[in-house]
Amino acid sequence: VWGNCPSSNASMEEVNGVPKLMDLLDEPVPGVGTYEDFNTIDWVREKSKDRDRHREITSKSKESTWALVNSVCDAFSGWLLMLLIGLMSGALAGGIDISAHWMTDLKEGVCLNGFWFNHEHCCWTSNETTFQERDKCPQWKSWAELIIGTTEGPFAYIMNYLMYVCWALLFSFLAVTLVRAFAPYACGSGIPEIKTILSGFIIRGYLGKWTLVIKTITLVLAVSSGLSLGKEGPLVHVACCCGNILCHLFTKYRKNEAKRREVLSAAAAVGVSVAFGAPIGGVLFSLEEVSYYFPLKTLWRSFFAALVAAFTLRSINPFGNSRLVLFYVEFHTPWHLLELVPFILLGIFGGIWGAFFIRANIAWCRRRKTTWLGHYPVLEVLVVTAVTAVVAFPNSYTRTSTSELISELFNDCGLLDSSKLCNYDNANVTKSSNELPDRPAGNDVYTAMWQLSLALVFKMLITVVTFGMKVPSGLFIPSMAVGAIAGRLLGIGMEQLAYYHHDWVIFRGWCSPGADCITPGLYAMVGAAACLGGVTRMTVSLVVIMFELTGGLEYIVPLMAAAMTSKWVADAIGREGIYEAHIRLNGYPFLEAKEEFSHKTLAMDVMRPRRSDPPLSVLTQDGMTVEDVETMITDTTYSGFPVVVSHESQRLVGFVLRRDLTISIDNARQRQDGIVSTSRVFFTEYTPPQPPNSPPPLKLRGIMDLSPFTVTDHTAMDIVVDIFRKLGLRQCLITHNGRLLGIITKKDILKHVAQIANRDPDSILFN
Fold this sequence. Notes:
With 767 residues, this protein is mostly helical.
């Protein structure tokens, strides 16, 4: 077999003594068909490339056993890749959880048995803990105890305060320095960029190995520093980095950008799966929120990958409670229909806060981009950390990590709870029953409500400034904290109302004295869902994540009511979720599928060239020399050129990408004898005979797209926008009676949409 292979090195082969031209179809040129940084991929081209590859493998598999094995391996590689992504992401998430837990406790003290134990693990085996003070044991020393030998008095308080602030500053300084020095792309949540990448945009290095390493380390540091941010959004970025890196092990994903995006969609699902321990919620999140193209095959693979990741995380057991999440709850009382009113009120609050937050945060980020603030990212992070730590320490609800705060707010008070929020008057309670009746609140509950109200105001303000700084920062946990605080406050209020006024009309039918009618923890859960929905505009995935997160299956209806209300209210104030707003702020070319295009414009109103512009730059199929083509490439910045029959007829033949042209001409000059500036360039199938002594021509039909998308000049723009969205096009050519008139690129459409919405069209930076 091998003996019959023609030598592929000779690019000019003698056929009957006449030199045969090298056609680029015969021999693939390295680099042709790839994309430059900050460009959009051509989905149609990538999909047809993959179909050709698949056809070839299928036809070969009938020829030999080895080819059949190869075909089976090819089919199986996708599932193997999912398995690897699940294992890697689960392991990383477990490590991040354990490290963040330990470093958060390090701000308050250290364990003498071994400095690597966090507070909970340190006191786990101790025999000296009491039930009331279960987190005090001789093995765990606060910094004041270690340094000045006492835990009581003002000096001890000041010492602990100082150490808390110093550790917070150290952690955040390390985080921002590492991000700046090694991986600038590791900052922020990463979800807006991942949405853009999944829509076909290329940001080289955004999902690379350095970004993965630095994001993993700095995420632990940022969460431990006590800043108002979560690790959930960045975990989606971490999982997508794992997906992208592992894609390089398989040729089919390494060489095809569209196939790789299917894998990244599944990786986004894995990220949410390990962030919340919610595998199904993760799949729905990827489908509803981040993915652009989500075929059924990707759904099954996402499901499998999310399952593997959740299983891996459960094996690591980072929280030591055999649960995947920190805030698992069990509520004992069913909810009553009349409680839907406060639930809907929480939904309205979530929507209003979400819309306010998006506006304030975008205004702050724009200020950061346009003023001196953006030039000092390290200083900004340190100042925000200092303010956060100084204000947070005196209030026990802001001092603990946000996840623990949410956990306490979701908690249903039992008789043995030592939390301030559970300090009820238990005089009339019999010990035997599992359900505790509604009880009058003790003094500590009112103190806790004051502290929670202050914590609510503080969290609402500081999160606006924190999200978007140059450290990894997620938004899920801070948003949920705001909602959970508001919900818990409302829940306690409702509970006390029901206790003191059980004869009111609203409580009469279902809330008799001595019954357990209202669960404040449930209100916190509903509030958390409402605020998260208001900020991100998720609905289905949000409800599924919330009930997977808390195990509260019978509370789906309250969660649905709150999520839907918050989305309606937030949409009424501003159409965009936080991720879309950040995509627009950064000028990424993202065509939002949710936006309606309602204006009556035609393709000829948007296409270039406009009436005042110079004519369209085109290549002719047989009338240009290499020098003409190179001059056109250097004189323009377009990413591709239409090919026409001639300048007079302007009938369309095909479309060539600038990058492919440059690479092919450079390659031909190096490898093909006699190619000079005066060589003729042909895009035709057959080359006409050349005059004697003329240099050999260059045949470039192989790199031309013979079926470029065209619409006529009278096509309505809403149809053109739909074609771009559904097929993922980069450009579309405009014809009139078969003659080429102009071109519309994705960037032109985005600029047109921006102009219609009275926004600055120059904010769209990339094509």
